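2024-03-11 09:14:02 DEBUG pipeline.ingest accepted 1 chain
2024-03-11 09:14:02 DEBUG pipeline.ingest length=352
2024-03-11 09:14:03 DEBUG pipeline.predict start
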Amino acid sequence: MTTSPATRTGTTVRLDDLRRTYGSVHALDGLSLELGAGELVVLLGPSGCGKTTALRILAGLEEATSGTVEVGGKDITRVPANKRDMGMVFQAYSLFPHMTVRDNVAFGLRLRGQSTDRRTARAREMLEMVGLAEHEHRYAHQLSGGQQQRVALARALAIEPAVLLLDEPLSALDAKVRVQLRDEIRRVQLEVGTTTLFVTHDQEEALAVADRVGVMNAGRLDQIAPPTELYAQPATRFVAEFVGLSNKLPARVLDGRADVLGSRVPTVAGSVTGSGTALVRPESVTVAEAGDADGNARVVSVAFLGPVSRVYCRLDDGQEVLAQVASSLAARLSPESRISVGVEATPVLVVE
């Protein structure tokens, strides 16, 4: 059963006006971010946007040029990494090859002077949580990539960290395992209630696991919001184009509504007035069969994706539009068939 961030245990995290420069390069340019107790926040963005730098500064692995880091209301900006009470899972599994699975999980407890009995009990508890109790006596080379990453997660959580940090933890895995393990990470995080910062460039991954997603661009946070809000109401053109697919359609905005493809639709905050370009999600594009004399477009191609299909259309004015529709409708469409294309009355961002 999932719980809301307000009801979970955990500690708060605050990054305030973080800046990190490397010569003339601004890896972070005034980043401010707060994580609620027990919340899982994902930082999403392209390579070089600063998301991993932010995580490493929180971990104490890098120093900020300026700004502060607070955990549980305490300033830890100058506290060394080994005193920060953080659990980390990296892209590389980083397991000790000469240790068994159980000893890997218990390693942090050994460094903290825990007794052998306590280490063994806690390691078994964590391995049970990630579904690997029966593998406790195996070595890393005897495990699959997904299993190794589960061990790394168990090791990070065994020390009961104040904050869990996940740096692209799934990017080295194949697609099917990645989906399974991302769901497993979310399940375990909810069960344990640890405040978590997760860094990824994979938008599907971010939207699937996060309480809130922060989209970073050139060292700054463009927007942070729950996944559904971020997707439906992007605050900037960068967010709209980076998260999901968008059609770029001519629009004219008046009194908070936009005329797009003959439909009048609401606009989201930050939209321009007058003439602009509407960023319309493929699932907001409507497609209907039409006779040769009707309609305003033709089908270019159809891509079957299971329950939904993507229909690539070309309007009579030559503009190409992508629609995502039920496969039952797409099955009736073929290249060059005449169709009528419109836009649902869902809010859109209109940019210059």
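2024-03-11 09:14:41 DEBUG pipeline.report Confidence is low (pLDDT under 50) at residues 1-7.
2024-03-11 09:14:41 DEBUG pipeline.predict end
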